[in-house]
Amino acid sequence: MSGPEQLTSVIPDERITNKVLIIRGVKILLDSDLAELYGTETKVLNQSVTRNQDRFPSDFMFRLTTDEFKFLRSQSVTLEGRGKFSKHPPRAFTEQGVAMLSSVLKSKRAVQVNIQIIRIFTRLRQILSSSTETQNKIQQMDQDIKSIYKILEQLMVEEQTPKPKIGFRMDNEA
Question: 174, exposed or middle or buried, with CB in 10 Å at 0-12, 13-18, 19+?
């Protein structure tokens, strides 16, 4: 990395990338993970969000359902100390919600981490997009290969059918 991107790398990208989850088909970060990245408490982050609720419509931030929360807890092999998960389902922030957090959380670290998170979301989107393009190309190649096999099968069937002899025949050769 070089230039302005290097200045905003406060946290290793892998640390952020490992916290991105897909819930309801959307890439999200949990409130507790964001608070950790911003160097604040989850309670403080959520209080800021609550005071600015109108900035966080449901496509920016939503609460996990009880079932999603239970599933998430069951996927955690080890809970990192007491209180890793609160009694209430956590808030999930989409890419837009993370961007909106920068207008609510004013610390320099929060702004730098937000920039980094947005860049990671963008990279993940590009990776998924190129992955989809690659899958489409593979499917097209698969169709092309199937067409080639059909043509080869037809050619093999044509080769196996006996062909009449060409040339001059004597009456006794019939």
Answer: exposed
22, containing H or E segment: strand 21-23
Q: CA of 106: how far to CAs of 25, 42, 114, 147, in Å?
A: 30, 15, 11, 60
pLDDT in tens, 75-84: 764 444 445 5
Token pair 């989107």 is at which residue? 125
Please count the other Cβ atoms lying within 10 Å of the Cβ belonging to residue 26. Answer: 12
Whole-angstrom Cα distance, residue 20 to residue 29? Answer: 5
Handedness of CA 78, 20, 43, 86 (dihedral sign): negative
Single pTM value for the model: 0.62
CA-to-CA distance for 93 and 30, rounded, in angstroms?
6
